[in-house]
Amino acid sequence: MVTAIATRRGGGLVVARGDRLTLEPGGVPLGWWDLPPDTRFNDGAVDPWGHFWIGTMCTDRPGTAALYRVAPDGRATTELTGVTCSNGLGWAPDHRTMYYVDTPTHTLDAFDAHDGRITCRRVVAEVRGGLPDGLAVDVDGCVWVAVWDGAAVHRYTPEGRLDTVVETPCARPTSCAFGGDTLYVTTAAPDGGSLLAVTGVGGGVPPTPFAG
């Protein structure tokens, strides 16, 4: 199971799959992991300083998952504990804010960000009508959140105001990402499993490749 992918500065990919991270091509292990039973990697992204962030999930035992940061040299640090289902990650255009979703909290959270470190966690918005999942940040600094079981993608301003709702034909949007001026939305079974394209919504913050 592949749950997250990021490009590498020198070419190739970082791939999260189950209980391990690998550098591709070649399947070279990135870090050494001993995740708790019934815990697996979930969503991940690269911060503006080239670190790869990856979260875990364990819905059978709430509060036992975590969020990790992997430095370019492969060293991993635990940045958050007490997580249940680590999901969307993104950074503001000025790099000063990191946005984050732990799905069962029903909230979009933010941290102050600096050189790969985070402080001052706070709630930006409460996501209603479903569960927050993956996210993407646009050039205006607003956050697009896929709403699982909500058949929609929500756009929140940095102040937490819901200013746009894009309805989807599938009940379970899982994540979203910008490609040029198109927002691509992934969806899940049973009535999804599709890739949707939403046009006319502006552009996103260009992704940073992993520096390792």
Give a description of the structure.
This protein has 212 residues and is mainly beta. The chain has one domain (2-199): 6 Propeller (Neuraminidase), CATH 2.120.10. It has no helices and 19 strands. It has strands at 2-7, 13-17, 20-24, 28-29, 40-46, 52-57, 65-70, 76-83, 86-91, 97-102, 107-114, 117-126, 131-137, 143-148, 152-156, 162-167, 173-179, 182-187, 195-199. It has a four-stranded antiparallel sheet with strand order 1-2-3-4, with no helix packed on it. A four-stranded antiparallel sheet has the order 5-6-7-8, with no helix packed on it. It is globular and about 40 Å long. The two termini are 23 Å apart.
Briefly say what this structure is.
This protein is mainly beta. The protein contains no helices and 19 strands. A hairpin with a 5-residue loop joins strand 15 and strand 16 (162-167).
Write the layout of secondary structure elements.
Blueprint: E1 2-7, E2 13-17, E3 20-24, E4 28-29, E5 40-46, E6 52-57, E7 65-70, E8 76-83, E9 86-91, E10 97-102, E11 107-114, E12 117-126, E13 131-137, E14 143-148, E15 152-156, E16 162-167, E17 173-179, E18 182-187, E19 195-199
Antiparallel strand pairs: 1-2, 2-3, 3-4, 5-6, 6-7, 7-8, 9-10, 10-11, 11-12, 13-14, 14-15, 15-16, 17-18, 18-19
Mind describing the biggest β-sheet? Answer: 4 strands, antiparallel
CATH topology: Neuraminidase
Portion in strands: over 45%
Span of the ends, CA to CA:
23 Å
The percent of residues in helical segments reads: under 10%
The CATH architecture term is 6 Propeller
The SSE string, one letter per element, is: EEEEEEEEEEEEEEEEEEE
